[in-house]
Design the sequence.
């Protein structure tokens, strides 16, 4: 065994171990394969966007991006596992909510108008910030800042609402969770006992208002766009914001008050930006007036400021969605579960039959190809989990089909090896010649498959707007790409292990190639 082949073999083993680990352990926050609606059940919606007459292609693209960000932000609050929110074509939005059973609630969630608002830290009589613990430890549940009757929002380290303190208008206060459900003080104590209050965590956020009592909301925001501070290097990114005339007056009044409330870096200087009760950012006020304009700066990447700018402008959907949806359906999980079991059984039986055929017909090379097929299956599933790929019945079909194509590449190599050995070449020479000469056929056949996958994915994302078609195309593409690697690299590396060993001299293990026992 050459040193180069040994190194390749070790890399293959490490890659296989990493793939197995990613399948059995959570990696990058992903615990399991993402399953589609036809397997786990849920709600499937397709919306048609209605753009204003005369809208340009660029404006449509920007509005679609903002709409996707808005819908994603709303759905994320509900903790739905692996939702799918995708653009289909130029003017359609696909929403799939696995495990969601109420289609009307799902429609309200997507179609609602998001609320963008600006808040500041609540202060006590001493001018210090108030936290949730101050309310929980207080003998009487009442506002610390009695001049502000609005709600208080408390967020966790992930900036999601832990609790909201509201008044019924008659002086009675009560806590609710982020979804509006009542929650007791004891439940909040248990939920927050391990959280450390500080900065924005568990801080009491009250509405930020101008001198006339008008709350600063997204309706006063005229523009939010990503910008670059350093035009030479492009490394420092910011979000440039601009207010309407009235909004600029309100914002300057709030900025002047916050600027004088505390030192830089303290909660008293922060302006909280909330979308549907979720904290997006809390920039510090650096000057007492901004003349209707400003910028949110910090240790941001360009991607982060683009996302924040989109969220700031997406307090409400940028364009109406056609109602009712073009397509709406509730999918039962029972049927999907049956198909999962049958698909797994079909896949196992299919793989075993293919491996049996390869071992019987090709002897030792067939056994090695079967090992590479196991490696192929584990690696592809790991890739599906990490991308992630939404596995539907159509996607499973694409994966099973790619298994057959993975074996097809090995067959091409083995048949070329047979010809080389019949011509009198040694096993080592036959392995190298067979692999190199079969490569062009493998490349060309798989290239045509890639082209078909591209066409199917394009059709599924635009013309026919079908997620199953897209899933089939994606799983087949990934499977065929990995099959080229396993056939050309993995199988050849395993064959090289036997070159120069006593096994290579046992012609019965290679009887198919030599034509003799």
Sequence:
């Amino acid at each position: 065994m050459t040193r180069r082949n040994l190194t390749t073999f070790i890399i293959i083993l490490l890659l296989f171990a990493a793939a197995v680990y990613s399948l059995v352990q959570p990696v990058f926050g992903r615990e399991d394969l993402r399953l589609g609606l036809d397997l786990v059940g849920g709600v499937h919606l397709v919306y048609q966007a209605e753009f204003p007459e005369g809208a340009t292609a660029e404006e449509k693209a920007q509005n679609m991006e903002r709409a996707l960000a808005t819908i994603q932000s709303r759905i994320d609050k509900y903790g739905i596992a692996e939702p799918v929110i995708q653009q289909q074509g130029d003017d359609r939005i696909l929403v799939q909510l696995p495990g969601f059973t109420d289609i009307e609630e799902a429609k309200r969630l997507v179609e609602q108008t998001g609320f963008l608002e600006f808040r500041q830290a609540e202060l006590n009589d001493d001018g210090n910030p108030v936290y949730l613990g101050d309310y929980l430890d207080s003998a009487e549940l009442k506002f610390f800042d009695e001049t502000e009757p609005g709600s208080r929002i408390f967020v966790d380290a992930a900036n999601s609402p832990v609790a909201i303190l509201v008044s019924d208008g008659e002086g009675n206060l009560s806590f609710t969770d982020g979804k509006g459900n009542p929650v007791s003080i004891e439940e909040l104590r248990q939920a927050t006992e391990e959280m450390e209050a500080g900065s924005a965590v568990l801080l009491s956020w009250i509405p930020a208002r101008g001198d006339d009592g008008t709350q600063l909301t997204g309706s006063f925001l005229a523009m939010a766009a990503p910008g670059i501070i350093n035009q030479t290097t492009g490394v420092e990114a910011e979000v440039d914001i601009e207010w309407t005339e009235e909004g600029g007056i309100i914002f300057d009044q709030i900025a002047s008050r916050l600027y004088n409330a505390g030192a830089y870096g303290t909660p008293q200087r922060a302006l909280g930006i909330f979308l549907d009760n979720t904290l997006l950012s809390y920039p510090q006020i650096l000057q007492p007036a901004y003349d209707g304009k400003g910028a949110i700066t910090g240790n941001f990447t360009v991607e982060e400021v683009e996302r924040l700018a989109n969220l700031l402008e997406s307090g409400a959907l940028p364009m109406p969605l056609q109602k009712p949806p073009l397509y709406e359906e509730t999918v039962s999980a029972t049927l999907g579960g049956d198909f999962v079991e049958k698909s797994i059984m079909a896949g196992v039986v299919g793989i075993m039959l293919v491996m049996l055929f390869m071992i019987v017909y090709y002897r030792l090379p067939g056994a090695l190809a079967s090992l590479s097929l196991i490696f192929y299956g584990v690696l592809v599933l790991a890739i599906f989990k990490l991308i992630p790929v939404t596995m539907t019945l159509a996607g499973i079909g694409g994966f099973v089909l790619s298994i057959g194509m993975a074996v097809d590449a090995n067959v091409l190599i083995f048949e070329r090896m047979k010809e080389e050995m019949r011509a009198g070449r040694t096993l080592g020479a036959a392995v190298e010649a067979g692999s190199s000469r079969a490569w062009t056929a493998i490349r060309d056949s798989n290239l045509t498959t890639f082209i078909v996958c591209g066409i199917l994915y394009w059709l599924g994302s635009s013309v026919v707007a079908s997620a199953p078609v897209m899933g089939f195309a994606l799983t087949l593409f990934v499977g065929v790409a990995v099959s080229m690697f396993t056939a050309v690299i993995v199988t050849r590396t395993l064959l090289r292990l036997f070159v120069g060993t006593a096994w290579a001299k046992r012609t019965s293990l290679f009887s198919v190639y030599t034509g003799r026992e």
Remarks:
- Residues 512-517 have pLDDT under 50 and may be disordered.
- Residues 3-35+332-510 form a domain with the Multidrug efflux transporter AcrB transmembrane fold fold (CATH 1.20.1640.10).
- The chain is about 50% helix and 15% strand.
